[in-house]
Known about the structure:
The complex is a heterodimer. Chain A is of the alpha+beta class. Chain A is built from 4 helices and 5 strands.
Amino acid sequence: MDRQLELLQGTLDMLILKAVSLGPLHGYGVLLRIQQISQDRLEIQQGSLYPALYRLEDQGWIASEWGESENKRKAKFYRLTADGKKRLQSEEEKWKRMPEVIAGILKTRAEEL
Amino acid sequence: MESEMDAELRFHIEARAEDLMQKGLSRTEAMRRARIEFGGMDQAREECREARRVGLMENFIQDLKFGVRMLRKNPGFTAVAVLTLALGIGANAAIFTVINTVLLRPLAVRHPEELVAVGDPTRVHAWSNGTPGTGSFSYPLYREVRDRNEVFSSLLASSRLDNARIVIDKNTEDLQGRVVTENYFETLGVEAMIGRTFSSGDGGAPGKDPVAVISYGYWQRRFGESAGVLGRAVQLNGTPMTIIGVTGPKFRGEVVEDQPDLWAPMMMEPQLMPEKAYLETVNISALLLMGRLKPGVTTQQAKANIDGLVKRALTGSLDAKLSADDRAAMRNLKVDVQVSPGGRGLSAVRAEFGEPLWLLMGMVGMVLLVACINVANLLLARSAARQKEMAVRLAIGAGAGRVIRQLLTESLLLAGLGGAFGIALAKWGATALVRMAQAGNGIKSHLELDWRVLGFTTAACLVTAMLFGLGPALRLAKVKVDGGLSEGTRSSGSKMKLQSGRLLLAAQIAVGVFVLMGAGLLVRSLWKLQEAELGYSRDKLLLVRVDLGASGYKDDARHAATQQLLERFAAMPGVRGATASTNGLYSGSESADVILLDGALPANGDKDSADDEIGPNYFSTIGVPMVMGREITQEDYSRRARVAVVNETFAREYFGERNPLGHSVGIQDSDHPNTPPYEIIGVAKDVRDHSVRKPAKRRLYAPLNAGGFDETGAINFEIRAEHPGALVNAVRKTVLSLNAEMMMDAPETANSLVGDTLGSQVMAARLSALFGGLVLLLVCTGLYGSMAYNVAMRTKEIGLRMALGIPRAAVLWMVTREACLVLAVGALVGVPAGILGSRVFQSMLFEVGGWDPVAISWAISLLVGVCVAAAIAPARRAMRVDPLVALRCE
C-alpha cells in the first residue's frame, strides 16, 4: 500500500461533514467512516478529530446528542444539520473547481509569464 | 465527576481497543496501542476547550449584534423597557451611593483597616465638662494613655475647633477647623500634597508652634491653588499662625460628616480657645482618639489594657486634678472604654441614619423587583410574536441552549442600557436625597461614584437581567417540545402565558401594597413626631444661643449682658416675652448634678438630676403650665431669691404623693461648696426639651443669677412671639447691637430646631413615599399594558359574545374580572406581609403600629385607584368592539 497522504489544510472539516452526511455517527465512528470512504489513503490525526468536531458543532453545521452505541454503551452522536448540508454542498463545489486551478498554476512555465 | 468531554474521549479509546482486541491483542496491549494511536490526550482536551472558547466568544458577539438589531426594530418596546430599568436601577444606585458614603467607605488614609477608635465613635461633636467619663477623653487622660499603653504603636487625639475665625489680608471669614495632636497626620498616614504636615517637633510647649495645615478644598477656594500659600501668615481666632502645608484632595479628616478646612496643633489650643483651655484639666472631655495597634494585638487585648490604664490614671496619677466629689465618683466608676475598628471613621450621622438607609435600600430593591416584573411581562408579550421565529430556529437545529443564550444576551443588553442611564441618575439622585435628609454639607460633598457603587450597579444589572430574562427564555425554549409552527400552538401557549402573567401582576400588586404600607407608616410616624405635644408652645418660640463667655463676658458682666439682652428682646415689636436658660430647648447642651433634699442625699432613687438655670417668667414665656405652686418671677430674680422649681417627674420620683412645696433642694458640688439651698416654690409640667421620643427626665430649675452651678458661658434665649419666623433677622441685629463681635448661633424657631433632630425621619418618610409613587407608576403601566394586550388578543372572543347578544356589562366584567382577581390576590398577600414586615423597622415608628388602619387603607385605595385608571382605556376599547369587524378578522 502507498504511504498515506497528509491531509491538505481545511480538509478534515469537509471529511467530517461528508462522513456524517451519510448517517449519524459517534466520534470513533466518524474516524472509521472517513477511513472507509477514503479507502484508507489519508492520514488522519486522531487527536485533531475532536477539536474539529467541537468547532463544527459550534458553527452550527453538526449537532450532537447522547445515545447508545452498538454495544449498549453511552456515546455522543453527531448528525448533519440543514446549515451543514448547505455548507457541504458549497465545499463540494469548491473542491470540484480547485484541481483545475491548481493544475493550471503548477503547469506554468517560465516562458508563459 | 467525569466531564462529557472526558467520557467521549474515553469511549473513543475503548472502542478502538475493542477493535484491536478482536484482531487478537490482549486488553492491556490493545488499550496501550489505542492510546498511542490517539496521540496526546491532554493536548486534544486543550484544543477542544480552545475550540469551544473561541466559539463562545464569536457566538456572544453574534448574539450581541443580533440583540441590538432586535432592539432597534422595536424602538417603542426598547424605550419603555430601558426607561423602566433605568428608573429601578438608578434609584438603587442612588441609595447605595449614600449608603456607601455614610456606612461603608473607608477613610482616605494609609491602611484604614488597621485603624482603631478609642472611645465612643458617635460623639463627634459632644463636649463634656464635668465628671470624667469614658465616651470622650480629656487631654491629661489622653497623655497618660498615650505614654503608658502597651498596645498602640501610635495614638492620636483630636477635637473640633470652636468658632474658628480666620483673618487673611484683612478679610475675615468663619471656617471649620480641628485641633489635633502632632502625630495626627503621621498616625493616619496622610502626606501633604505641598509643604509639610505636623511632626513631633510641633508638639512642644503650648503656644510655641503656631503652624497650621489646610485642606485641599480650602486651598482651592481661598487661595486659588497658588503655591504661595506656604509660609503665609494668617490670624486664627486672634492668634498669628503660619500655613505650612496642604493635604491632598481625597483626605477629609476622620469624621465622616465633616469637611474641615484647617488643622491646628493641639498645643495651640489654649491660644485658640482661651475660654475653653483644656490641656490641663481632667474635667473637659472633648477628645476623640484613634490609633494603630502594635502587630499581633487584638482589639480585646487593647481594650483590657486601656480599661485598666484609664482606671489607674483616674484614681491615681490624675487624682490631684480632680475635685473631692469627682475623686469619689472615680473610685466607683466602672471603666468600659469602647475600642472598635476605626477604618471607616467616626460619625454621629451613621448612628442616626444607618437603620433608615438600610430600610430604604430594601424598599428600593422592591421597586426594582416591580420594574423587572414589568419588563418580564413586556418580554412575554413580545414572545408571542417571536414564537414562530424561535420555532424555526429550533427546527433547523439550533440547540435550545443556543437560543436561551441568545435571549439572555438580549436581556443583558437591555439591563446594561438601563444600568448606564441609571448610573447617570444615581449621582443626581443621591445628592437630592442627602439634601432632603439635611444631613449636612459634609456628606453632600463626599458623595462619589467609586468602584463600589459601579460594582453594585453592575451586579444589579446582572441580577435584573436574570430575573426578567430567564423566565421568557425558558418558556420559549420549551416550544421545541411542541414543534410550535402551527397556529394552534398560539392558543395553548398563550393560555400558559396568561396564567404566569396573572401571577406576575398579582405579585406586583402585593409588593406595591407592601411598599405603600411601609411608606404610609413612616409618613404617619413623621406627622406624629412633628405634631407631638412637647409640653411647650413650639409654634410661638424663637430660640437663639449667644456665647457670652467666648465673647469675653465673665461673671457679673455676663449677668448684666443677659439682663440687657432680655430687656432689648422684650422691647422688640411683636415680641410677647423673653427669657433665658443655660440649657434651653433642643440646644444640644445638658447638665446634671447630685441633689440634696432637705440637706441630705435622696433616700430612694438616683442621687442626681438634670438641672437648668433659668431667667424670670421662664415657664409662662415658653408656655408650660405650672402643676403646683408658682414660677420664678422677675421680682424673685431681681432680689436673687433662693427659690427653685422642679418638674413633675422630679416631684414624683423624689416626693411621691407628698407635696414638695416648701422643701429645700440643693446641689452637692465640691467645686461650689457651701452653696445655700433653694426653696421649692413650684412644680412645672414635664417638657420634652431635648428629644421628641424620649420621655422627660427629672429636672430642677434654679435662677440664672443664683450661682452655685458650673459656668458654661453660653446662654440660650427663648423669645415668644406670634410669628417667630419673621423675627429672625431682627433678633440677630438686636444681639449684635449690644456687641458687634458677639459670638452667636443663628436664631431658629423651636419648630425648625425640633425638625432638625428629625432629619433621618424626614428622609425615610419622603423617600419611601417617593418609592411608593414609583411602584404605583410601574403597577399602573404594567396593568395597563397587560389589559390592553388581553383585549387585543381576545377581540374575536369579545366580538363573538357581543354578536350572540350578551349584554355589554357582562363583556365589561369579563375584561376587568382578571384585574379584580389580581388586585384581590395581591392585596390579600401584601397586607399581612406588610404588617409582618413593619416589625423590622418598629423602632423607627412613633405612635403607630404595623396594623395601622389608616396606612393600610391608604395603600389599598391608592392601588385600587391606580388599577381603575389603568383599566379605563382598555375597557372602553373592549366596549367599542364592533362584532362584525372582529369576527371577520379570522
